Amino acid sequence: MQDAYLRAFRSFETFQGQDGRAWLLAIRNTCFTWLRKKGVQPAIKFDEKLHTAAGPSPDAESVILIQAALGSLNGCLEELPPEFREVIVLRELEELSYKEISDIACVSVGTVMSRLARARKRLQQCVAGAHR
User: Fold this and answer.
1) Are residues 5 and 58 in the same domain?
2) For 37-93, what is each residue's pLDDT tens digit?
3) Of 58 and 109, which is predicted with more confidence?
4) Based on the domain organization, do 73 and 23 belong to the same domain?
5) Range of the domain at 51
6) Which end of the chain has the least Cβ crowding within 10 Å, N or C?
7) Measuring CA to CA, how many Å separate 76 from each of 69, 79, 128, 132?
């Protein structure tokens, strides 16, 4: 991953003023490509703390229920294959457009839509199975 960000730093002059986040995430794919060539599945960790907005403090019972729900959702997210996990996080948590995700993942918009549909279906099945 450090090589990917070093490459971004060295190539900063090629940045043309678009969305910097999308540009940097696309460069991150350098790391994923290298790992896949080496036969290693990239580990993409999901951290709920990074994506939680501060709000009013809920009561203790609500906190326990929320933690249980988040625990099962986090577990289900981690079970997704990396390519599904990446698109669902970029779309649902980072709120990127299909086009931005397409550019970041270096796949077509149709592939993004397909992966999103499959990721959502797997998440629904996993979460439903966790509550049985």
Assistant:
1) no
2) 787 766 655 555 554 555 666 677 666 655 655 557 778 888 889 889 889 988 988
3) 109
4) no
5) 45-132
6) C
7) 11, 5, 10, 14
pLDDT (tens digit per residue) in 2-36: 666 676 677 777 666 666 676 667 666 766 777 77
pLDDT value at residue 48: 55
In whole angstroms, give the CA distance from residue 86 to residue 32. Answer: 11
Q: Are residues 67 and 27 in the same domain?
A: no
| pTM, full prediction | 0.54
CB 85 within 8 A of CB 45: no
Write the CATH number for 106: 1.10.10.10
* Whole-number Å distance between alpha carbons of 35 and 90: 20
Question: Which residues does 80 contact at the CB level (< 8 Å), separation at least 6?
Answer: 88, 119, 122, 123
Interacting residues of 51 by C-beta distance below 8 A, sequence separation 6+: 93
Burial 94-113 (b: 16+ CB within 10 A, else e): eebebebbbbbbeeeeebbe
Q: How many residues does the structure list for the chain?
A: 132
